[in-house]
Amino acid sequence: MTTLIPVFADQLSLSLSSLRDANSQSSIILMMEVASEANFVGHHRRKIAFLFSAMRHFAETLRQAGFAVRYVKLDDPENTGSFDGEISRALDELQIDKIVVCEPGEWRVEQMVRQWQERFSLPVTVTQDDRFICSREEFGNWASGRKQLRMEWFYRDMRRKTSLLMRDEKPVGGQWNFDQENRKPAKPDLFMPSVPSFSPDAITLEVVELVRSRFPERFGSLDGFNMAVTREQALKAARSFMQERLPLFGDYQDAMLEGEDVLWHSLLSPALNAGLLDPLELCEMAVAEHAAGRAPLNSVEGYVRQIIGWREYVRGIYWLQMPDYAQANGLDAHRRLPDFYWSGETKMRCVATVIDQTRRIAHAHHIQRLMVTGNFALLAGIDPHEVHEWYLAVYADAFEWVEMPNTIGMSQYADGGLMASKPYAASGKYINRMSDHCRQCDFDPDKRTGPDACPFTMLYWDFLARNREALSGNQRMAMMMRNLDRIDTGELQQIREQSARLLDEIAPPNTASRRMPSL
Ligand code: FAD
Ligand code: SF4
Question: Per-domain residue ranges for the chain?
Answer without folding.
Answer: 3-127, 136-196+227-321, 329-506
